[in-house]
Amino acid sequence: MQRPSQVFYQPRTNLDFTGLYDKLRSNYGLTAHSKANVTDELTEIQTEIEDSEAELYRLQSHIAFLQSHRRHLDEYRDCLHSLISPIRKLPNELLLCIFEHACSMNHLTSGHIQSMPALAISGVCSHWRGLSRTSPQLWSRIRVYLTMMHPDHVVTDLLQYYVDLSQESPLSFEVLGEKLETLDSCQSTVCTTVGACSDRWKELTVSQPTFFKALTAHNPTHFPVLEELSISSFAFRLSGSLDRFQDAPKLHSLSISLFPLSKLPKSLFPWNQLNVLTICSYTEELKYLLEGPCNVTDLHFCEWADGWFKKTTTFPLLASSIQTMSLSVAASTQQESESLVDVIFSSMTCPNLTSLYIDRADIDDSYERIWPRSLIHDFLSRSACKLTTLSIKSIPLADSNIIDILTRLPSLLHLTIEDNMDFGGPITPQLIQSLNAFRYNGRSLIPSILAPRLRSLSLGFSTFNDTVNSALVEMVSSRQYPGGVTYDTETSKPYLRSVVFRFPHRQVVPEVNFLPLKYHEKAGLRVVIFEGACVLNI
């Protein structure tokens, strides 16, 4: 492309300031210049000023044009780059898989486009907009906080937009918010819109009884695609409240804070369909559900202020179907309620239990309950289960309690332990050293008995120092030693395949603290180190 020729402004007046200053100092009286001569020169200068000013305007206009043209060139260049962008080569099917992965819940009341991934994706370009609008599943996961709504119709219109684009796809709704006695017109409209789709509910979470009452105002009784139901306790203080869902052939997961367990035998709810049950109470009546023809494999207990837990006075409940159990414990409950951990470990027998998770429901409060070591011993002995997964998070235990449990779990494959960042926890150099594959008895190395077949280890630390650092490196290295009890002779590889360490902020220098682990990583061990929320490279 040929560049245009440059045009320069040529001055016409000789600006001889030295000669002019001399004249100003000497030409007085009869020797002064005539007015006619000066006037002619002034006229010429004024003409040139006007010409130079016009040239200046022309140049400024040309600069503005060039700046605008430069912006257009940049935009054109970016568009050309987009033509060869690798993402354009992805087939629509793969692109939709990425969209599906990116689109979790769409929080319609957040006021931020980032919280509405389906809407954000549809605004990138016409191609993505067309793809997203032909993918109803992207628009089918919706969350609304009714107590965060503004008194206008933006959210109601947006909700209807999502429902329309979801077409006939099954819907996942979360209707959340603080307790309200009555709903305003916008809140009622939202509940009416959600309730009108009851035959398409796939997952339903409701936090308040007022919301649930508005959702079911048209008295729906048929839920052909409903799979997961999570709802507050207050809506179900009467035993028949759950009977509404008796015609839900696909329902397999129920999360409910409180239910009159004594009414279980008369309930029409399809309890025998459940695979997952989350509940915030435990009494002897639970045996009607778990000891009968039960399909529940995942059982979750959550301790909270209004929950009720009471030990059984008869023989422990035999829950043969339970494979996964989680306990979310709290520092305080009702005055006469017993500790969740005490109740469960003394009142249940789970011979097929493979995974046990214990964490905190109120992580910000100090937890001072006594750890029931003897009850846990009895539970493990009574159940005779082969536990493969153990996770204990934010429980301020002594390290000896963890070591004691591990001595009773030779089948353990996956172990997660996390300190409470404010109140400490069981992760100490002694605990880490107890996980070494070998111990020195004064004369020679002998195999350790703690979790010899451990495959994955995740530790979350409240503090970090050189003692912890050296203990970690030594422990991990010991489990990579060929020929030991932690080495799989069939695959010729160590059992330990993955370690994840989580540390507080600004305490770890991985290239210094964990350099030996880099060599294990290159040999096949998965090593992940978090500092706060950031992943560090070794």
From TrEMBL:
InterPro entries hit by this protein: F-box_dom, LRR_dom_sf
UniProt keywords, alphabetically: Coiled coil
Record carries keyword Lyase: no
Keyword Cell membrane: no
Top-rank taxon: Eukaryota
Coiled coil: 35-62
Domain F-box: 88-143
UniProt cross-references to Gene3D superfamilies, sorted A to Z: 1.20.1280.50, Ribonuclease Inhibitor (3.80.10.10)
Full protein name: F-box domain-containing protein
Source organism per UniProt: Lentinula raphanica
